[in-house]
Amino acid sequence: MTQKDITFVADFLTEHFNEAPELYNRKGKYFNVERVGQYLKDEDDDLVSPPNTEGNQWFNFLKNSTHLKESPLLFPYYPEKSLHFVKRQMEGVIDQCLQKPADVIGKSVHQAVCMSLYKTSQSEDSTPQLFKLPFLWNDKTSNIHYVLFTILENSISKIYILRRHTDTSRSVSNGILAVEFGNFLNNSINESSDSRCYTCLDAHFYDDETVTVVLKESVEQEGKERVLAQLPLS
C-alpha cells in the first residue's frame, strides 16, 4: 500500500467510525459506512459518494494515450455506479461474446456415425458405469482422431480403440477394434494360460505410433504386479 492509501483509510475511519458509547446497547447500525455500502448495493442508482479519481495513475495513463483512450478492448469505467452494476454490465458483454461462437459451433456439429457399444437395464438407478478411460488423441499427420476406452462389463482385459478420419466424409479401415492383453506377457509358452492374466488400469497415446498402458495382474494375491507397457499402434 502507498502512503496515500493508508492516509485515505485513516481518514475514512476517523470520519465514519467515531466512538458512540450511547449507542452500544442499541440494536442496529452504529456507524455510517455509506461510502463502503454504496458499492455493494444491487441497484442502478448513482453512488452517493463517488470516488475521487484525480491523480489516479491508471486514469492519467489512459487519458494521455491516444490508442487506448477509445479502445474497444478496455472495459468501460463507471465511476458513478456500484460494483453490482459493473458486474451485470460485464456479464452481459461476456454472454454476448460467447453467444456467436456457441451458435456457429453448435450448427456445425453433426453425427457422423452411431455404434452400439453395450446395452444396460431400463432402470437408471441400477445402471453401472461401464464406459471407462476415455482418452482422445488427434494424429495431425494422417488426420485420424482416436478414442481409447474400456468397457468393464464386456471384458476388463480389453482396451478398445475407436478411430475416425477428421474429414467425416472419409472412412478408415478397422474403425473400432479391441486389443486383449490376456497372458501375452508370459515368460514362456510353457506357462499356464491363466497364470498371468492382466487388466488395463490406464491407457494414453504416447505419440502418433505408440500407446502407453498401465497393466495389473488379475490374480487375487498380495503384491500384484504392475506393468508399464508401450505398444506400437500398428
Automatic annotation (TrEMBL):
GO CC annotation = anaphase-promoting complex; nuclear periphery
Q: Does the keyword NADP apply?
A: no
Q: Where is the Anaphase-promoting complex subunit 4 C-terminal half WD40 domain?
A: 136-234
What protein name applies here? Answer: APC4 protein
Which InterPro entries does UniProt cross-reference here? APC4, APC4_C
* GO BP, one annotated term: protein K11-linked ubiquitination
Q: Which Pfam families match?
A: WD40_APC4_C-half
Q: Which residues form a coiled coil?
A: none
Its lineage opens with: Eukaryota, Metazoa, Chordata, Craniata, Vertebrata
Sorted alphabetically, the keyword list is: Cell cycle, Cell division, Mitosis, Ubl conjugation pathway
Q: Does the keyword Cell inner membrane apply?
A: no
